[in-house]
Amino acid sequence: MRFLYLVVDDLGADETEMTRLAERGRALVGPDDVFDVTKIRIGPGYFYESVVGGALVVPGVLHAVSRHGADYDAIILGCATDPGLDAARSVTDCAVIGGGEASVVLSALVGRTFGVVTIAESAIPELRAQIRRVGAESRCVGVESIETPFADVDRKYEQALEAVTQQAVALRYRGAESIVLSCMSFGFTAMAKDVSALIGIPVIDPVRAAVAAGRAQATIGARVSRQAVPRLENPGFLHDYLDRLAQLSLDSGLTGYAPDLPETETETMPAQSRKDRHA
């Protein structure tokens, strides 16, 4: 299969970071599969974990899906809050997969109840709405955050592992029979495997879940229902608008724009405004 992973939350990611994501993603698919990684062209430099941050990246998601949909079997949104998921599905026949949605749905295969661990408290309302959207609210025992910037999931892995494990144990005691990791950054590490070994219940990796969902959709030969997500009619206006917006962003230097921020920001800012770039 041909997978495309869309980076939506870190448009300033350098070549080293993009290579890291691509190499670790390719390790999750088969030898004959493709796992490409690209950044959206319209959006803020950093994705802030909030409904505003999610809204700002939707034009970029639609632009990328419209441009690349014919070249891939599945496009994975690089944020577990799944920004613009239904809108993206309306502009392409390619499978568009949200890692957050896929993780919650697949949790039913390994347990009756689940808990969610994410990286930012400000993402929790969106994740709760996502859980309601797929009808899984009665199975969810709670959603908790470790308040850790995305980069530290990999860079300070042992600290992140300790924090995730602490929240996962609390959720297990509240009745969770599995844990959903709701940040795509977790999926490019061994977090799910390591936490599961420590707490003794299944832990779902959102990137693996997204790949599995894309492969399952191809296996059963079913695309998204147009009763659920109608195909956009006469999409020419959208393509023209997005192309103009992308060019405007490029010409003005807005693509990937973010203010210079001090290295200590995540230690001094309140939880709801911390800069977490992969959610």
Give the low-pLDDT segments: 261-279
Question: What is the number of E strands?
Answer: 8
Secondary-structure class? alpha/beta
What level of helicity do the residues show?
Answer: 40-55%
Largest sheet data: 4 strands, parallel
- SS strand fraction: 5-15%
Q: Strands of the largest sheet, in order across it? A: 2-1-3-4
Mean pLDDT: 89
Which oligomeric state applies? single chain
| Strand and helix order | EHEHEHEHEHEHHEHEHHH
Instruction: Characterize the overall form.
Output: globular
What would you note in describing this structure?
There is one protein chain. The protein has helices at 15-26, 51-68, 85-89, 99-106, 124-133, 150-155, 157-173, 191-199, 206-220, 236-252, 265-268; strands at 2-7, 34-39, 74-77, 95-98, 114-118, 140-145, 179-181, 203-204. The protein has 279 residues and is of the alpha/beta class. Helix 4 crosses helix 9 and helix 7 (157-173) packs across helix 8 (191-199). The protein starts with a strand and ends in an 11-residue tail after the last helix.
Quick structural gist:
The protein has 279 residues and is α/β, with parallel strands linked by helices. The chain has eleven helices and eight strands. Helices cover 43% and strands 13% of the residues.
Features of the shown structure:
11 helices, 4-stranded parallel β-sheet, alpha/beta, 279 residues, single chain
